[in-house]
Amino acid sequence: MTIAKAVVEFIGTFFLIFTVGMTVKTPDAAALAPLAIGSALMVMVYAGGHFSGGHYNPAVTLGVTLRGKCTWGDAIAYWIAQFAAAAAAAGAVLFIKGTGTPAPGPAAAGTTYNVAAWFLGEFLFTFALVYVVLNAATAKGTEGNSFYGLAIGFTVVVGAFAIGPVSGGAFNPAVGLGAFLMGLADPTHLIVYLLADFAGGAVAALLFLALNMGGDRP
C-alpha cells in the first residue's frame, strides 16, 4: 500500500510542477499561471487525497508526519516520489519547451513538426484528465461527492494553460476530430490526438485498476 500511495504522490507532484514549468515558460499563459498552478493542485488533491492524503509537497508531508497522521515509512516513500516527480517534470518541460514548437494550426508549406512534443503533452494531460475522472467520480473513496465536475473541468483548464500552446490541448479524440474537420488542425495533429489521447486514457485506467486491486474499485 505504501508503494501505491507513493505512486499517487508522484503523479500529483509531477502534474503540479509540470504545470508550473509549462505556464511560467509560456508567454501567453504566464499572466494566469497562478490560476493554472492552483488549479493543478486542486484537481490532484481531488484525485489523490482520499488515497495518499494528496500532499504533493515534502514540507506538507513533514508536517503531517510530525502531526502523527503519516508514518515515517510512508513519509520517506512520499519524499522519494515527490522529488523524483520534480525531476521528471523538469525533464518533460525542458524537452517540450526546448523544441520551439509553433502554435498548432493548419500546416504551411515547409512546416517542421516536433511530433514527440505534441504527443507527450497530449498524452500527459489526457492521462491526468482520465485519472481525475476515475478517482473523483468513480472511486468508492470519493463516492457521493458533489464536486467532481469542478475537479474534472479544472483539469482541462490546467492542461489548456500548460500544454495548449504546444499541442492545441485536445485531450479528447472527439475534440481532435472536430478540430480537424473545422480546419483547425492538420492530419498530423489528428493522428497525434487519436493515438496520444487514447493511450493516455488507457494508461490512466490501467493504473487506477492496479492501485485499487482488491480494494476500491467496483
UniProtKB/TrEMBL annotation:
GO cellular component terms, semicolon-separated: membrane
Segments passing through the bilayer: 7-24, 30-48, 76-96, 116-134, 146-170, 190-211
Keyword Repeat on entry: no
Location(s), subcellular: Membrane
Keyword check for Transport: yes
Gene Ontology molecular-function annotations: channel activity
Keywords linked to the UniProt accession: Membrane, Transmembrane, Transmembrane helix, Transport
Protein name stated in the entry: Aquaporin Z 2
Lineage of producing organism: Bacteria, Pseudomonadati, Planctomycetota, Planctomycetia, Isosphaerales
Gene this chain is encoded by: aqpZ2_1
